[in-house]
Amino acid sequence: MVATPADALKSIARCLALALALIAGPASAAEVRVMISAGFFQVYSAVAPEFERATGNKLVTTRGPSMGDSPEAIPARLARGETAAAAALIKFLASPHAAPALQKAGLAPPAGR
Predict the structure, then answer these.
(1) Is residue 25 part of a domain?
(2) What are the beta bridge partners of residue 60?
(3) Given a cut of 60, is residue 7 above it in pLDDT?
């Protein structure tokens, strides 16, 4: 069976919703900081309201490019010490520059994992 783009988006949405739920944990209502690249915006905006209703947590979203050295780029934000509970970047695996910043911030596994 060949997956359609809609099926792929639904699968990504389920994975993102699960990841956000695991990050938020059972703690009382809190702000959950999330950094996302444009490639995840459609899926994220679809699951974010449901996540907030289900958990009582408020998502504080920062959008930026998944790679590059502009001040708005997620790797640059992490490198200068901005924090997030989760980062969703479409081009993460394709970028040799993104991995070290995400690993340093604890948002990606160490090299080789």
Answers:
(1) no
(2) 33
(3) yes
Q: Does an H or E element contain 32, and which?
A: strand 31-36
Query: Is position 102 within any domain?
Result: yes
In a domain, 17, yes or no: no
Cα separation of 72 and 109, whole Å?
23
Q: Between 42 and 27, name the one with better pLDDT.
A: 42
For residue 43, the enclosing domain spans: 30-113
> CA angle 96-46-42, nearest 5°?
45
Q: Does residue 3 lie in a domain region? A: no
Name the domain count of the chain.
Answer: 1
Contacts for 113 with CB less than 8 Å, ≥ 6 apart: none
- Whether the model clears a pTM of 0.85, i.e. scores above it, the answer is no
Q: Name the DSSP letter for residue 34.
A: E
